[in-house]
Amino acid sequence: MSKGFAPEPYKIKMVENMAIMTKEERKEAIERAGYNTFLLKSDECYIDLLTDSGTNAMSDAQWAGLMLGDEAYAGSRNFYHLEKTVQELFGFKYVVPTHQGRGAENILSTLTIKPGDYVPGNMYFTTTRFHQERNGATFRDIIIDEAHNSQIDLPFKGNVDLKKLQALIDEVGAEKIPYVCLAVTVNLAGGQPVSMANIKAVSELAHKHGIKIMYDATRCIENAYFIKAREEGYADKSIKDIVKEMFSYGDGCTMSGKKDCLTNIGGFLCMNDYELYLQATATVVQFEGMPSYGGLAGRDMEAMAIGLREAVNYEYISHRVNQIRYLGEKLDAAGVPMVKPYGGHAIFLDARAFLPHLTQDDFPAQALAASIYEHSGVRTMERGIISAGRDVKTGKNHYPKLETVRLTIPRRVYTYAHLDYVADTIIELYKNKEQIKGLKWEYEPACLRFFTGRFSQK
């Protein structure tokens, strides 16, 4: 391990054996999966960096909390523990649990969007935009231009461009903008944070026009860490205090508990508007469950409450972000192209720079993810033209400027030795990148195609 990196701030007391397959076996596996890493079986993957969503290792306190699960159909004490924790840490008045983040996105979009609306946000996210478009809205990207350039290194590359937001308000009118979707951090930009100054400015502009701020709070702990590390005036503030201030400028949030709550399932929707809360409780019973469990077991809500408090611990979050930095620095030293600066949950390889002999219509990120698996047994995922999907009106492909492969680090799962293996094998593959072939569609689903689509080599 390189100097300057502290060892893991936890002890290992349980182990899970990892799959070890030959390269020929992996080649057969990725062909069976239609060159889509989502369709690989878990036991076919050696190191699984597909996602950090629900792949966390829970603590001894969380496992103990599972035994305190109150599985009452209504009024579970675990809900009240979760509610109190979220209210204390996030500051929002009302909390509605959901089975995961997209459950919260569905409720928010259903209740607030009408056909013809526009939802501005600092870069799209796949499921978020799907729910917005499904309810008749048009997504408008208002992130700063630099976020679409992998090589520009800025401390807060997830910031909103205030001129873009004002231009949209002037173009369509505030009455057609139900809320600003403010992601902290911005996943598809490379896990890039938003500064506190920018959050304040966006809040002031939106609220001046009567527009709500609804956060995608999925990785808010990581965003708070970057504010502490990079923004003047916050070095001496706790992660907990920074999180509370971040959300004080908004009106609510959607949250996937499968990330910063350090659990394997769960999510919630928050708001300060009582009328919206009443509508949300009426809607959640239709799709998720009672407002006091929202599709979750009591034990899962208990684990989320405990995990949220663990996540605001500085030792935990600094180690997590440093694991990503460690992997990034090893790859960068070998010239492997990636999004700069490193984010808080993943390294994003620049697939077009990695595979300059392929066009975007050859699906370079999908091809690279498949090749990484075949070469090393490391499962990653595509974040490019396949994830971007098609325009709902024209049916044509979206062509994002960023065509990336995401190497996502699960929380408290892998050690620096695992990351050494990941870096070494990707560096080796990079030296032989000309051998990687493009892909074409064999089966394309109607929506969210990156999950279940299948491909073949050209």
Flag low-confidence runs.
none
Largest sheet at a glance? 5 strands, mixed
Quickly give the CATH architecture of the largest domain: 3-Layer(aba) Sandwich
Determine the number of helices (DSSP H or I, runs of at least 4 residues): 17
How large, in whole angstroms, is the Cα Rg? 21 Å
Task: Give the oligomeric state.
Answer: single chain
> What integer is the average pLDDT?
97
* Classification by helices and strands: alpha/beta
How does the overall form come out from the CA principal axes? globular
Q: In which order are the strands of the major sheet placed? A: 2-8-7-6-5
Which helices and strands appear, and what pairs or packs with what?
Layout (H helix, E strand, L loop, with lengths): L22 H10 L14 E2 L11 H7 L10 H14 L3 E5 L2 H12 L5 E4 L4 H9 L3 E4 L20 H11 L6 E5 L12 H13 L3 E5 L3 H11 L8 H10 L3 E5 L10 E5 L2 H14 L10 H14 L2 H20 L12 E5 H4 L9 H13 L1 E2 L1 E3 L1 H4 L15 E5 L7 H15 L8 E5 L5 H4 L1 E4 L1
Parallel strand pairs: 1-10, 3-4, 5-6, 6-7
Antiparallel strand pairs: 2-8, 7-8, 9-12, 11-12, 13-14
Helix pairs in contact: 1-14, 2-11, 3-11, 4-5, 4-10, 8-9, 12-16, 14-16
Provide structural commentary:
It catalyses: L-tyrosine + H2O = phenol + pyruvate + NH4(+). Its EC number is 4.1.99.2. It comes from Cetobacterium somerae ATCC BAA-474. By secondary structure, the chain is of the alpha/beta class. The protein has helices at about 25-30, 60-65, 75-90, 100-110, 125-135, 160-170, 195-210, 220-230, 240-250, 275-285, 300-310, 315-335, 350-355, 365-375, 385-390, 415-430, 450; strands spanning about 45-50, 95-100, 120, 140, 180-185, 210-215, 250-255, 265-270, 345-350, 380, 380-385, 405-410, 440-445, 455. The chain has two domains: about 25-50 and about 315-455, Aspartate Aminotransferase, domain 1, CATH 3.90.1150.10; about 60-310, Type I PLP-dependent aspartate aminotransferase-like (Major domain) (Aspartate Aminotransferase, domain 2), CATH 3.40.640. About 40% of the residues lie in helices and about 15% in strands. A five-stranded mixed beta sheet has the order 2-8-7-6-5, with helices on both faces. Helix 1 runs antiparallel to helix 14 and helix 12 runs parallel beside helix 16. It starts with about 20 loop residues before the first helix and ends with a strand.
